[in-house]
Specification:
Blueprint lengths: L1 H8 L4 E4 L14 H29 L2 E6 L12 H20 L4 E8 L8 H4 L2 H9 L9 H12 L10 E4 L7
Parallel strand pairs: 1-2, 2-3, 3-4
The structure holds nicotinamide-adenine-dinucleotide (NAD).
Length: about 180
């Protein structure tokens, strides 16, 4: 994919590592294969994205990477393998920011709270759970995809040219409590 983009556009300015899966399984119900799949997609995705794209950014001396982690990487939400995979995204983002900064490439991580997308559809099917979540959130609503997109837009833009290694939590204040 990287080769195709380079062949067509000559350079890559922005990389957003967003693809991910989630689970509701607790630790005891999680098999080794479940754990490997979770870490494989959520953890290896940003690793592979940066490994293949950043060298092209470094050639240009500039680039912005935004990795999508989750507030579950910072607080105990009981999602175990998912939280662990997002913790990996958190750690690799910091490490990459220090490694790539001198090449002109910035790396930041975004930590969404509960956002209304297909991923949270199951939660949204229960009015009771949604109401509980809203009640527990200082800003009294669930997040929308645009809340995250706007943050990514900022971090990817030149307006954030002095921002790297940062962690932007977008969860309506949930994890600030
Ligand atoms: N929705 C939330 O409440 C929430 C909260 C915190 C973090 N996040 C994170 O935000 C990101 C986007 O999630 P979303 O809520 O839009 O979920 P989503 O399920 O709507 O979107 C996830 C996307 O990832 C893609 N994907 C999954 N596995 C893939 C693979 N192996 N290769 C390529 N693409 C793959 C899916 O096709 C889908 O388009 C994810 O990393 C997710 O963990 C979501």
């Amino acid at each position: 994919m990287t080769d195709e983009v380079i062949a067509k556009f000559g350079q890559i300015d922005i990389l957003v590592n967003n693809a991910g899966i989630s689970t509701e399984k607790g630790i005891n119900d999680t098999t080794l294969a479940d754990w490997q799949l979770m870490l494989g997609i959520n953890g290896f995705g940003p690793f592979l994205g940066m490994k293949h794209v950043v060298p092209h950014m470094a050639k240009e001396g500039k680039g912005a990477v935004v990795n999508i982690s989750s507030f579950t990487a910072q607080i105990g939400m009981g999602l175990n393998s998912y939280s662990a995979s997002k913790g990996a995204v958190r750690a690799i983002s910091k490490a990459a920011a220090t490694q790539y900064g001198r090449m002109g490439v910035r790396v930041n991580a975004v930590f969404p709270g509960t956002i209304e997308t297909p991923m949270t559809q199951k939660l949204e099917e229960s009015k009771e759970l949604v109401n509980q979540m809203i009640k527990a959130t200082p800003l009294q609503r669930l997040g929308q995809p645009a809340d995250i997109a706007n943050a990514v837009l900022y971090l990817a833009s030149d307006e954030a040219s002095y921002v790297t290694g940062s962690e932007l939590v977008i969860d309506g204040g949930y994890s600030a409590q």
